[in-house]
Design brief:
single chain; alpha+beta; OB fold (Dihydrolipoamide Acetyltransferase, E2P); BirA Bifunctional Protein, domain 2; 2 domains; 8-stranded mixed β-sheet; 5-stranded mixed beta barrel; 11 helices; about 25% strand; elongated
Length: about 450
């Protein structure tokens, strides 16, 4: 019998021969019986073997094989990958899934060293050093199943609404926003390339190309020496851009619908397991999300007695938490759009309201943490040039970008959202390191 059965499929199978493969989670080597918990990518199952501790010199081949199997199980170390064939039996007394497998044969694919370098309660940095072992935990496996469902749901939302998925280059000849926080990469013939901070310029190029509605889920890079729980030097950015909008409100409406759809998919598929392993009920947000202008948000923070230390007028992390707390108390909502940002704290390509001078933009806060910046973009080339110069940027370095607008671009806007931040907040984790497959930060380039 060569077909492998996943652990998640065992409950639906009838009693009888079965073959499973995975890694050893625990071994209980008792005098008369041996128990092994075998885990694969879908769950864990109990293996049982009646122990044969000794045989006489005239024992037959079956007895010799039983002794060899007992000795092999006694020597198994945690993390050893193996394949087991045996007899599946349903037994409601078995706490782990109500099934067990009586071992007939065991084939070791790869043995593990006897001493595991980390434990589930090891510190975060230590666990990151041995991330491939850390990820074997059931709850960590669930994180990336949730991530898969979240991304799939977002793609489904967009594709069902006729968006085009694009893949923008991550090597750029010039910065996408500014030269701050840029990684420089030596390129051919003594040239310098830059790792893309975002797909911003290329999303806008797609509008000039007449694509209408686009999205991308891909890596982005920031040479930001931050050591906070929500920053990374390489991260997954979720981006969308749409044409023919009236204001940034059209972008915000699309994003709140997207998140409502995606979080409903996560709740429906993983809600029970998330509650079991993380102690969190997945809440699907009601529509629409609350909106609060930045000036009002500043007043809310001031009324709590907190003085925002930022000198540029933007909200610092503590202010974001206080605004979100106000929204929870007032609206019973975990999301809030903070809108109408001052031009001085926004990129040059954000459109400005001609009456107020404020940008047509927003930040989206989720449980007190910013996860998104969105805006209507300025599509008039002469205004773009003036705003770039105002920000101290050189037009020569933006030549390719500005060319997009010299041949016609419809009114458009979009957003960029940090995937790891969404996962961190959704699952109640304290750091994006916990929900990133392999984290990259100022002091971490390995494994």
């Amino acid at each position: 019998m060569s077909e492998r059965t996943l652990v998640s499929q065992l409950q639906s199978r009838e009693d009888g021969p079965v073959r499973v493969s995975g890694w050893v989670e625990t071994v209980r080597d008792q005098k008369k019986v041996q128990f092994v918990i075998l885990r694969d990518e879908t769950g864990a199952v109990q293996l049982v073997n009646p122990a044969t501790r000794e045989i006489d010199e005239n024992a037959d081949a079956a007895a010799s094989a039983a002794l060899a199997l007992t000795e092999t199980i006694s020597e198994l170390s945690t993390g050893t990958f193996l394949t087991v064939t045996g007899a599946l039996k349903h037994d409601e007394r078995v706490k782990l899934g109500g099934v067990e497998i009586k071992v007939a044969a065991l084939e070791i694919a790869a043995s593990a060293l006897p001493e595991t370098p980390i434990a589930p309660d090891s510190g975060l940095d230590k666990r990151m050093d041995w991330r491939f072992i850390d990820l074997r935990q059931r709850r960590n496996n669930l994180i990336f199943r949730v991530q898969t469902t979240l991304e799939h749901a977002m793609r489904t939302y967009w594709i069902e609404r006729d968006y085009i998925e694009i893949h923008t280059p991550k090597l750029m000849a010039s910065p996408s926003e500014s030269r701050a926080e840029l990684f420089e990469v030596p390129y051919f013939e003594e040239k310098t390339a830059y790792l893309a901070q975002s797909p911003q310029h290329f999303k806008q190029m797609a509008q000039a190309a007449g694509f209408g509605k686009v999205f991308e889920i891909a890596d982005a890079f920031r040479a930001d020496p931050s050591f906070t729980s929500r920053h990374a030097t390489e991260f997954t950015s979720v981006d969308a851009e749409i044409s023919w909008i009236d204001s940034h409100e059209d972008v915000a409406t699309m994003q709140e619908e997207l998140l409502h759809y995606a979080l409903a998919a996560v709740r429906d598929k993983h809600g029970d397991e998330i509650a079991e392993l993380f102690g969190i009920d997945v809440v699907v947000p009601t529509l629409p999300f609350p909106r609060i202008p930045l000036a009002e948000a500043r007043d809310i923070v001031a009324q709590t007695g907190y003085v925002n230390p930022r000198t540029d007028g933007d909200l610092d992390p503590e202010s974001e938490r206080r605004v979100s707390a106000h929204v929870r108390e007032t609206f019973g909502h975990q999301f809030v759009f903070v809108t109408d940002y001052d031009a001085g704290i926004r990129p040059f390509y954000h459109m400005r309201d001609p009456e107020t001078g404020l940008t047509k933009s927003y930040d989206l806060l989720f449980q007190g943490v910013e996860i998104t910046t969105g805006a209507q973009r300025e599509h008039r080339v002469e205004v773009l040039e003036a705003q770039a110069l105002e920000k101290g940027l050189e037009l020569e370095g933006l030549a390719h970008y500005l060319d997009f607008f010299r041949y016609g671009v419809p009114p458009h806007g979009g957003f960029g959202m940090g995937l790891a931040r969404v996962l961190m907040l959704l699952l109640g984790q304290e750091s994006i390191r916990e929900v990133t497959f392999l984290f990259r930060g100022p002091t971490r380039l390995a494994p």
